[in-house]
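User: I've been trying to design a sequence by hand for this structure and keep getting stuck. Would you show me what you'd pick, starting by listing the structure so we're on the same page?

Assistant: Good idea, let's start from the same input. This is the structure you sent:
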């Protein structure tokens, strides 16, 4: 037995015994058990009382060899360090994906190895290799944390003096497996076994060869009459009515069901999914289809529900749902450069103005309206003061720039709730590159300063639409009063735009508990979906809601206009506004005079700047 106690002798004896017994099979056949048990007894190991039995040492020594010979159906192949690195990284990617299912994951990894390396690998062999790296993880972590050893980045080895090595070898012979061994992927090993304790257990317990051997040895010394009271975990989300089935049913049933569930027409759902797939922004996994991924996002945003509440619908864990919701949020946010774009300035006059005598030609160069809205937010306690708005609500101030067709031209997200609208506009111009096309302007409320590019109402006069209800032209007090009414009628498009957005996505009304950076992306992603539907589908259920026509905003108190416009710009804006108000008021005067003269038909062509 003397030669057998040498390392190579142990390995050689073990391999010979395995070969004679027919190989270590996936089912861990009884001869394989007998070999390990016999070898342990021959070498003086104590499987019953030692944490590091000779049996375990031999198995690990075999597995740690860089050119380890695995026998599968009596056909050998060489195991390389490249295979080690591939195995560790595949497992790490499976865990990080948030969709780890042991049986499916191992089957996928085995198929990858067979395709890439042309070896007849089995699940048991790969799991056995992983068990060795679990010991590498434990040992290397212990060595580096307890002193006497350090990590050499040049050689990718754990290094130490002979005294330190000998001291640890007496305590744990497996330490020798690290001496002089290069581990270029140690970070992947550490990340793999640090990621999630429950998933680590799932990896190591799922049909692992040597764990099964250890279980057999331990069970042989247990009292046969002792009852095992360990609770057996019950699997969840095992319904045959899977998320894929549920989503398919919603999409192919009555379209109203799709509106109620996913907040859009089925055709728009499928088109948005196809765009995300074609641009490779989302991809299908083995267990979650791209339709499910998009459905998770739309259901969470549309109903404002937490991921845990969605588990029954989709039959996935909350971790899986959270992962894919985040993926789709980021994916849709990347479409903002396609669906949220500033106008060029060469577009013709919008039909909303061109075909209405109340607005044309006075507002012919207006291209939309600007306003801010509050979206509930969850932030850290030390940041809440900055995000508390004047209504004492923690929120982010979102600036919307909207056209008369209810399409967002620009969305400024992530601003503190305590920030005033003028401050947000200033930051959008200076930091985010927001620009108004030359010769055009947006309508703004009284919280902004008046300028040639930002046309505001007059202070001190009526402004909100409700104040003008059931009043005819005779009720106008003066020129400024009538100008404010026309201005409010046009600028109401931005309030309708926010109204449609918040009615479609309940999470924007109630808030959510995602990290704040994700909350910011959620607002942006919802605006992208809003524009996508408006551009691709036109009118839908939410755009046709009539009660949104007279939504009133809650204006911020006026702030120093110098934050955005200079005094010269303010003077130009004042002259421009006066010119428009005068033209509107003069037309009213002419209409009254013509009516008094009893003219039955009048054609009026008011030219811009006409003084007659």
């Amino acid at each position: 037995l003397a030669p057998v106690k040498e390392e190579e002798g142990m390995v050689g004896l073990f391999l010979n015994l395995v070969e004679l017994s027919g190989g270590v099979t996936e089912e861990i056949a009884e001869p394989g058990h007998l070999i390990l048990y016999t070898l342990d007894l021959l070498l003086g190991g104590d499987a019953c009382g030692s944490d590091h039995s000779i049996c375990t040492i031999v198995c690990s020594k075999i597995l740690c060899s860089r050119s380890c010979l695995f026998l599968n159906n009596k056909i050998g192949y060489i195991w390389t360090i490249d295979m080690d690195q591939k195995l560790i990284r595949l497992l790490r990617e499976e865990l990080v994906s948030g969709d780890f299912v042991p049986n499916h994951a191992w089957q996928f990894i085995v198929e990858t190895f067979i395709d890439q390396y042309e070896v007849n690998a089995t699940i048991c062999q790969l799991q056995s290799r992983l068990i060795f790296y679990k010991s590498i993880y434990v040992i290397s972590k212990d060595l580096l944390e307890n002193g006497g050893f350090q990590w050499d980045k040049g050689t990718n080895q754990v290094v130490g003096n002979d005294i330190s090595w000998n001291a640890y070898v007496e305590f744990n012979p497996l330490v020798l497996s690290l001496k002089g061994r290069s581990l270029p992927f140690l970070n992947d090993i550490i990340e793999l076994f640090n990621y999630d304790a429950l998933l680590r257990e799932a990896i190591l317990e799922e049909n692992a060869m040597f764990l099964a051997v250890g279980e057999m040895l331990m069970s042989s010394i247990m009292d046969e009459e002792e009852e095992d009271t360990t609770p057996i975990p019950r699997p969840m989300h095992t319904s045959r009515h899977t998320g894929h089935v549920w989503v398919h049913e919603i999409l192919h049933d009555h379209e109203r069901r799709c509106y109620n569930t996913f907040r859009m027409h089925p055709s728009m759902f499928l088109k948005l999914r196809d765009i995300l797939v074609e641009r490779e922004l989302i991809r299908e996994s083995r267990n979650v289809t791209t339709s499910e991924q998009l459905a998770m996002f739309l259901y969470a945003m549309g109903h404002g529900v937490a991921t845990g509440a969605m588990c029954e619908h989709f039959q996935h864990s909350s971790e899986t749902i959270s992962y894919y919701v985040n993926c789709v949020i980021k994916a849709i946010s990347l479409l903002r450069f396609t669906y949220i774009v500033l106008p060029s300035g060469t577009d013709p006059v919008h039909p909303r103005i061109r075909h209405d005598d109340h607005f044309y030609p006075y507002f012919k160069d207006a291209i939309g309206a600007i306003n801010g809205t509050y979206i509930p937010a969850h932030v850290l306690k030390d940041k809440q003061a900055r995000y508390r708005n004047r209504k004492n609500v923690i929120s982010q101030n979102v600036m919307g720039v909207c056209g008369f067709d209810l399409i967002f031209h620009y969305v400024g997200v992530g601003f503190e709730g305590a920030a005033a609208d003028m401050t947000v506009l200033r930051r959008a111009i200076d930091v985010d590159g927001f620009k108004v096309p030359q010769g055009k302007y947006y309508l703004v409320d009284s919280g902004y300063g008046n300028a040639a590019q930002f046309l505001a109402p007059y202070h001190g006069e009526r402004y909100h639409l409700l104040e003008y209800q059931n009043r005819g032209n005779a009720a106008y007090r003066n020129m400024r009063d009538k100008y404010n009414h026309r201005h409010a009628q046009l600028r109401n498009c931005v309030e309708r735009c926010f109204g449609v957005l918040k009615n479609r996505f309940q999470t924007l009304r109630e808030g959510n508990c995602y990290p704040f950076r994700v909350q910011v992306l959620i607002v942006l992603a919802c605006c992208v979906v809003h524009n996508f539907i408006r551009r691709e589908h036109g009118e839908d259920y939410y755009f046709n809601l009539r009660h949104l026509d007279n939504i009133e905003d809650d204006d911020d108190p006026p702030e120093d206009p110098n934050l955005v416009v200079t005094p010269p710009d303010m003077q130009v804006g004042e002259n421009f506004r006066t010119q428009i108000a005068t033209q509107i008021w003069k037309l009213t005067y002419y209409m009254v005079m013509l009516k008094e003269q009893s003219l039955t038909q009048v054609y009026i062509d008011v030219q811009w700047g006409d003084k007659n």
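That's my pick for every position. To get oriented when you compare it with your attempt: The first strand starts at residue 68 and ends at 72. The two ends are 121 Å apart (CA to CA).
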